[in-house]
Every structure is written in structure tokens, then in C-alpha cells.
Design brief:
The protein has one helix at residues 54-60; strands spanning 2-4, 6-10, 19-23, 25-32, 35-43, 51-53, 68-73, 79-91, 94-103, 112-114, 125-128, 133-136. By secondary structure, the protein is mainly beta. Strands 4, 5, 6, 7, 8, 9 and 10 form a 7-stranded mixed β-sheet that branches. The longest helix has 7 residues, at 54-60. It starts with a strand and ends with a strand.
């Protein structure tokens, strides 16, 4: 499956002007007990886990605190709490079982994150930033 990078505006600091950047973002559909949510997710090879905001869990009917409690640390070293749940995910026409950590402690308007456990262990991923596409094999 081949996808194009998504062009977005970014501002790296309050004093900087906005710039255009390209990110490997794809739409995923998440399934849980007959419910489905479509959401955009960032493919992040530096992320250990797939992480989405807890609001997605609520829409799916996932009882957040019934999942396995997890503490994860991001690039800034701040630890956040989340709960891991088994769900199904669809990317294009491929459906697979995976695990997602849902957390209330990430910004509600952020992208979901597709990390090593739950995404990279399911696909071979080829990035071609120069030509602005990536492939899932």
C-alpha cells in the first residue's frame, strides 16, 4: 500500500512563523465490539506503542480503566498514564488485531500515534521523504 505524506502547517516556537512540513499520516479505522471510529494517525518509528486519546475509546464503547494500566514516556521525558486495550484496526483494506493505549493525558486535537508494538510489528514500512511517499508492505 502506498500513501503520500501529508502537508501540514507547524510552528516550532511561539516566536517563529508557521512553516509547511510533511508527515506520514494515514487514516485508520478502529473497531471494538461492533463500533467503529475513523481517525488520522501519525506513523512514528520512535514510538514504542500505538497511542490515541481516551475520547476515541469512549466513542468505541471501551471502558478505559478495564484495560491494562500503562505508563509511557515521550520525547520530553514527561510520563503519562494510559490503558491498553485489544482492538481491530483497518488501514486501506487490511484488517488486523492490535493493541492501543488510550490516554486522557495527550492533547485532544492531536493525531493518534502508530508505534512499534501494534503497528511496525505488523508491516514493513518504507519511507521516501525525498519523493514524499511511504509504503506499507
Amino acid at each position: 500500500m502506498r500513501f503520500n505524506y501529508t502537508e501540514i502547517e507547524a510552528k516550532h516556537s511561539p516566536s517563529e512563523r508557521k512553516i509547511r512540513v510533511y508527515r506520514p499520516i494515514i487514516r485508520v479505522d478502529i473497531f471494538y465490539r461492533g463500533n467503529i471510529v475513523g481517525y488520522e494517525a501519525l506513523i512514528d518509528s520512535g514510538a514504542d506503542y500505538c497511542v490515541f486519546h481516551a475520547d476515541i475509546a469512549n466513542v468505541l464503547g471501551v471502558v478505559l480503566k478495564k484495560g491494562s494500566k500503562r505508563k509511557i514516556t515521550g520525547i520530553g521525558g514527561k510520563e503519562i498514564k494510559g490503558y491498553e486495550h485489544a482492538v481491530k484496526m483497518r488501514i486501506s483494506q487490511k484488517v488486523f488485531q492490535t493493541a492501543i493505549i488510550f490516554s486522557k493525558e495527550i492533547p485532544p486535537n492531536s493525531f493518534g500515534v502508530l508505534g512499534n508494538k501494534g503497528f511496525f510489528n505488523k508491516f514493513a514500512v518504507n519511507f521516501n521523504y525525498k519523493k514524499r511517499f511511504f509504503e506499507l508492505l
